[in-house]
Amino acid sequence: MFICVIADYGTGDPAFTEVTQRLLLAFPHAQIHLLSVPPFSTLATGFWIAQLGLNPGPSERLIYHNCAPRQDDLQARRDNEGEGLTYALLPNGVKVVGVFAGYTLSFIKDHTKELRVVNVSRGGSQFRSRDVFPVAAAAIMGEDFSLLGDSLNSKQIPDVPPNRIAWIDGYGNIKTTIGAHTLNLEPETKIVIRIGDVVSDAVYSDGSFKVPEGTLAFSPGSSGWSVGDSTQPLRFLELFLRGGSAWERFGRPRVNQQVTRIT
User: Fold this and answer.
1) Mean pLDDT of 171-180
2) Taking the model in full, what pTM does it have?
3) What is the CA radius of gyration of the chain?
């Protein structure tokens, strides 16, 4: 079994090790991969749930996610209560178990065979992803669905916000939530992009490396997935500075910041 743990604990945080230990109690032969997203970034969490879950991989897969900013109720919490746990089954058989918060389910909400509440305690521990949720994940992966509760309606889940930064990769490429199909431009069209207080010229390209060194390209990137029976996968636009870092060019913006094309 391949398990991907997506959480906002922080790269190298021992919390990942604690959660891994608990998961290995239930799945001693599993391969576990850890993916750290920025603190409280439900948008990045949701993006990677879809990118990893809807693309090809091992047949027996679990995506276990925990990004729980506890923003569903701004009042004082009793017994460390937080957002509830959910279960999603993707069309390719991948199971997704994790906290329903913000945009965590937004990218997959229209691509699930099943989407249910998981009936486990919403409190009892500050560290629920270690102390409470692994038991539920183990039961579900063992085909014990007795903990599953009501179905979630996709209308209860927010849509993916348009024109936002979804991720910044290790090369400084800025992955956005803008679908490539939404931009109808000829290649090499000059455009202007604003992120925060920084404005930069860019060139629309249908392939990142089709621009000269030092040029900022706005082009379909490597992220996306197939939708239904469509032979044309959904792809997202990405800002790419050939020979440099688009992230640095725009003053090191954060995930979820708005990306604006100035016409």
Assistant:
1) 96
2) 0.90
3) 19
